[in-house]
């Protein structure tokens, strides 16, 4: 009876250790994949910033719109088609990003410009007024494939909450959490370039242009992977010890019989 009970305990311990090994190895492999992703992002940022600055215009080959490439655009602002992007924090302070289209010099194309961050007024849930803009403007910045997104929960404010109006240009600027270029182009009727310009210059006291950078610390993920594989090795060593003790008891048991 004691022998049967000991055997069951051994089998249970080995099964639990096998699960631990499988989980920790899986977590280690996941961390290695995250390291590869971050390494690829770092390489993309370096490749984009090495390219010569690009002057944006209509009719360009989309292949030139490389993320993180320095770019400039000249044209006229359309402040009436601006959008506030909420829940964008800067140094722990809540606020908004302002997205405004800039109609390029040819008059037929436009680029969506992320103009900068504005703090939310204390005690107010309303977005600030869009600064008026007149006359031609030239801005510099870096290209992004799309407006950076935030994780978005289902809205509790109704089906129409946080959506673009059917037609832009009338009323106050809408407040959204995320903005899709395709949806925005339909709402505005603008022929948008398939890229976003994150403005860095000229500087403006109304905006903070300290754009968040993606995490590229792949060494951290490699360190985590090494830890997970270390846990797996410890669990494997524990399994060997349990198996060896069970084998030793099984060998001694016949000799203990009268």
UniProtKB/TrEMBL annotation:
Subcellular location: Cell membrane; Membrane
Signal peptide span: none
Transmembrane segments: 225-247
Superkingdom classification of source: Bacteria
CDD domains xrefs: SURF1
Keyword terms of this UniProt record: Cell membrane, Membrane, Transmembrane, Transmembrane helix
Annotated InterPro entries: Surf1/Shy1 (IPR002994), Surf1/Surf4 (IPR045214)
Predominant subcellular localization, coarse grouping: membrane
Membrane topology according to the record: Multi-pass membrane protein
Similarity comment text for this entry: Belongs to the SURF1 family.
Protein's UniProt name: SURF1-like protein
Organism annotation: Bordetella genomosp. 1
């Amino acid at each position: 009876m004691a022998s049967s009970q000991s055997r069951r305990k051994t089998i249970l311990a080995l099964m639990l250790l096998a699960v631990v090994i499988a989980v920790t190895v899986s977590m280690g492999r996941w961390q290695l994949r995250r390291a590869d992703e971050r390494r690829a992002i770092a390489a993309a940022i370096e490749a984009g910033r090495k390219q010569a600055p690009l002057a944006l215009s209509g009719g360009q080959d989309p292949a030139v719109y490389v993320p993180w490439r320095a770019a400039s655009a000249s044209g006229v602002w359309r402040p009436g088609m601006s959008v506030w992007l909420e829940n964008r924090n800067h140094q722990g302070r809540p606020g908004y990003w302002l997205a405004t289209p800039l109609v390029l010099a040819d008059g037929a194309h436009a680029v969506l410009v992320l103009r900068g961050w504005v703090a939310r007024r204390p005690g107010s849930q309303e977005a600030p007024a869009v600064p008026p803009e007149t006359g031609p403007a030239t801005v510099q910045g870096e290209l992004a494939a799309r407006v950076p997104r935030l994780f978005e929960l289902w809205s509790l404010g109704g089906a129409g909450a946080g959506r673009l109006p059917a037609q832009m240009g009338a009323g106050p600027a809408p407040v959204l959490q995320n903005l899709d270029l395709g949806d925005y182009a339909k709402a505005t009727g603008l022929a948008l370039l398939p890229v976003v310009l994150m403005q860095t210059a000229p500087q403006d006291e109304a905006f903070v242009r300290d754009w968040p950078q993606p995490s590229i610390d792949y060494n951290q993920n490699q360190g985590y992977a090494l830890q997970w594989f270390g846990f797996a090795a410890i669990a494997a060593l524990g399994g060997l010890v349990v198996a060896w003790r069970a084998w030793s008891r099984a060998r001694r048991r016949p000799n203990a019989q009268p």
